[in-house]
């Protein structure tokens, strides 16, 4: 009797283990296929408060995030990885996709070796580029307006 109990108990454990991994797999798939979710680790601020700050505005992307603005002064990293300043959960965005930097009085954007490229005003970004007020930066399904 104890032998059949042990087999039954092992079968139940195996079934629950399989269910756990199935739910985990479905959760991971759902997370990776979900529409772009944007998280800003910095405080979302209105533009124009500081003379040396640049502002990024989401123009195209999921409706819930259109119009959101992100101000920064020195640098801002963008990608899917959690250690970016601006995290975009989009399968067409690399883990570390681009970085915006201030160089003296100018702002630049640089692609960090992304597999799906970065576009500035619909041109592929192949090297670090100085940004001008009104430039459009596209990564994945997101279009960002640069303002200064």
TrEMBL record:
It holds the Pfam family FHA. CDD domains: FHA. It comes from Schwartzia succinivorans DSM 10502. Keywords: Membrane, Transmembrane, Transmembrane helix. This is FHA domain-containing protein. Residues 76-125 form the FHA domain. The keyword rRNA processing does not apply. It comes from the Bacteria. The chain crosses the membrane at residues 6-27. PROSITE patterns: FHA_DOMAIN (PS50006). InterPro entries: Cell_Proc_Reg/RNA_Proc (IPR050923), FHA_dom (IPR000253), SMAD_FHA_dom_sf (IPR008984). SUPFAM superfamilies: SMAD/FHA domain (SSF49879).
